[in-house]
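Quick sanity check, Carbon-nitrogen family hydrolase:
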Amino acid sequence: MRASLLQIQVDPHESVDSRRERVASLVRDQAGADLVVLPELWTVGAFAFERFATEAEEADPATGPTALAMSAAARDAGVWLHAGSVVEKGHEAGALYNTSLVFSPSGELVATYRKIHRFGFDRGEATLLAAGTTPVTVPHPQATLGLATCYDLRFPELFRALVDAEPEGARVLVVPAGWPAKRAGHWTLFARTRAVENQCFVLACGTAGSHAGVAQAGRSAIIDPWGEILAQSEDNAETVVTADLDVSQVDKVRETFPVLKDRVL
């Protein structure tokens, strides 16, 4: 499985429409990849709280401008695309969600995931957005994907649920983020830890630049089930991080070091 992470620059001087068009072009450039991943809230910026309501997209995610643009880009490139996340208008009056979108190579929206753990400690995202409630896996042809978003990375029980999901648990954990630079060490640490403890690949896709003045960590990384970094961005500049994943390695690691079988709780 060839995976490509697009570490997108979020520039406050670039309009959302322009960035959407530019990112669609970048996705089209990834023809030949088996999975392309975009960061969290790359259209508006994960810390641009004052813009969440104005940039929110319709409750049916497939009809929003980002979904339409990413659907077309996935279809044109012939790739599976995790299009990062958007601010979604919920059906409930006034409710907003941080919602990830996954498209098949035909451009079909095959999965959505509403971020369960909201960051902010009773401020920012934690007060402006509603929480999702359901872990989501996606049956990619080469390996089942488990979906999580940014702050979710700090909560290992979510990843256990993804690994234990029926009919087949996750083998590749996909984590788009808008992670702050001042905690960049935690970003890498947690991504590698989730890989080791769940014996999965982890695709950790961050953003470049800054979101509403909050410098981003970048450091997008592709990590194998032993916690080894197969590829990683060197800084927080816009770039593409690509690696080939031998997904059979997941089963091999679990067979040779069967730690998951020894769980008690």
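Posting the structure with no commentary besides this: The chain has a mean pLDDT of 96.
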